Amino acid sequence: MSSISLSHSEIQQIGKPDPDSSSTLDSTNISVIALQQTPMSDTQSKDSNGPEKEAEKRQTSATKNYRKNPYEELSKLRNMSFIAALLFPIIGILSFLALWHIGASQIETSLGTLPGPTQVWSQFTGLIQEHKDEQAKEVAFYERQEVRNLKKLEKDPNASVKIRPYTGSPTFFDQILTSLVTVMTGFMLASLIAIPLGIVCGMSSMFYAALNPLIQVFKPVSPLAWLPLVTIIVSALVVTNDPALPKSFIISAVTVTLCCLWPTVINTTIGVSQIDNDLINVSKVLRLNWITKVRKIVLPSAVPMIFGGLRLSLGIGWMVLIAAEMLAQNPGLGKFVWDEFQNGSSNSLGRIMVAVIVIGIIGYLLDLMMLTLQKKFSWDKSAELR
After folding, report:
1. DSSP-assigned states of every residue in 46-93
2. Which residues have C-beta within 8 Å of that of residue 283, sequence separation ≥ 6?
3. Are 230 and 255 contacting, i.e. CB atoms less than 8 angstroms apart?
4. pLDDT for 161-179, tens place per residue?
5. Residues 246-269: tens digit of each pLDDT
6. Cα 97 from Cα 104, distance rounded (Å)
7. Residue 113's beta-bridge partner residues?
8. 58 or 125, higher pLDDT
9. Which has the higher per-residue pLDDT, 338 or 85?
10. What's the angle, vertex CA 267, arms to CA 266 and CA 270, rounded to 5?
C-alpha cells in the first residue's frame, strides 16, 4: 500500500475554496437558471398577454361598433321622432272626431240634431259645388256680354260698348279670400306702426314712460267698442261715391290694426330693453349712428321677442276680423256665419260648423307661417321654436 505525503501548505490549500472555480460555478449556475427561466417567462407572458389581447380586440371592435352606432342610433331616433310627430296628432284628431260623433247625436237644437263629422263634410262638399256653379255662371255671364258687344260693333263700329262686372253673390271661398286680404292688410299696417314704436320705447326710458299709460289704456279695449267709432270716422272721411277701396274693407282693416297693435309694441319694447350691455358698449366704441345701431345690433338681438309679438298680433287680428265682419256685415267669413245663422235652414248649422273649422285651420296656418319666418330670420338657429 503506497502512502501519499502532502506538505502542510498543500493541506491548507485543499481547505480553501478556489476563487476561479467558484466564480465559474456561479456564472454557470446563473446561466443555467436563466436558460431554465427564459422559456417559462415567455410562456407566462403569452399566457398573461392572451386575455389582455382579447380584451383589446373586444375594445377595438366595440370602438368600431361605437363609431358606427351613433349614425344608426341617430337615424333610428329621427325615424322615431318622425313617427311620433305624425302619429300623436293623428291619434288626437281621431279621438276628437270620435267624441264629436258620439256627442253630436245626443244634442238636439231648434234646427235639428247637431251635425256630426260626416254631415259637416257633406256640407263642405256642397259649398265646393256651389263655388263651382257660381264660377260657371260668371264665365257664362261674360261670354254672353262679349257676344252681345260683338254683335253691336258689327252693326255699328263706332258704337260704345259697356263691360259690366258680374254681380253674383260671393261664395264661401270668395269670402275666405276677402277675410285673408283684410286681416293681412290690417296686420301689416299694425306692424309698420308697432315695431318702430317698440324700438323707440325700448331704447328710451323717458319715451316709454310717456307712452306706457296710453298702451295700458287702449290695450284691453274690445273690437266691438272700436268698430262703431271706426265706422263713424271712416264714413266721415271717405265721402266719395266711388272710393279706391270699399268702406267696409277700410273699416275692417282699421279695426284689426287698432286691436292687434299692442302685443307687438309690448314685445318689441321688452326685447329691445333686454339687449346685452356689452353690445351697447360695442356700438358706443364703434361710434355707430342711431340707424346703424338699430339695424346691426338692436333688431338682430330683439328678433325672437318681435316675432313673438307678431304671432300674437296676427292671431288676435284674425279673431277680431271675424267679430267685426259679423257685427258690421262686412264681406268675409264673419258675414257668412251671421247670414247662415239668420237663415235658419236645416243646412245652416252644418255650414256654420264648417266655417268654424275653416277659421281655426286658417288661424293655425297663419301662426305656422309666422313661425317659419321667425326661424328664417332668427340668428340663433339652434333655438327650439314652437
Report:
1. HHHHHHHHHHHHHHHHHHHHHHHHHHHHHHHHHHHHHHHHHHHHHHHH
2. 293, 296, 297
3. yes
4. 788 888 888 899 999 999 9
5. 888 899 999 999 999 999 999 999
6. 10
7. 108
8. 125
9. 338
10. 90
Residue with cell 256630426: 116
Cα–Cα distance for residue pair 50/31, rounded to 1 Å? 28
CB contact at 8 A, 370 and 310: yes
Highest mean pLDDT among 233-242, 243-252, 266-275: 266-275
Cβ-based neighbours of 201, under 8 Å, separated by 6 or more:
207, 208, 211, 212, 265, 268, 269, 272
Average of per-residue pLDDT across 28-38:
43
Q: What is the pTM of this model?
A: 0.73
- Residue 297 is given by DSSP the state I
**Separation in Å, CA 67 to CA 54, 59, 71, 76:** 20, 12, 8, 15
Give the count of alpha carbons within 13 A of 283, CB side only: 16
Average pLDDT over residues 26-48: 44
Amino acid 143 reads E
Tell me the C-alpha distance between 260 and 183, whole Å: 10
Show the DSSP H helices in the chain as ranges. Answer: 8-15, 19-104, 117-155, 172-203, 205-218, 223-237, 247-273, 277-285, 290-293, 299-328, 333-343, 348-377
Find the mean pLDDT for residues 140-155: 87
- Give the residue carrying C-alpha cell 247625436: 105
Distance of CA 280 to the CA centre of its chain: 30
Assess whether pLDDT exceeds 80 at residue 37: no
Give dist(CA 379, CA 306) in Å, integer: 13
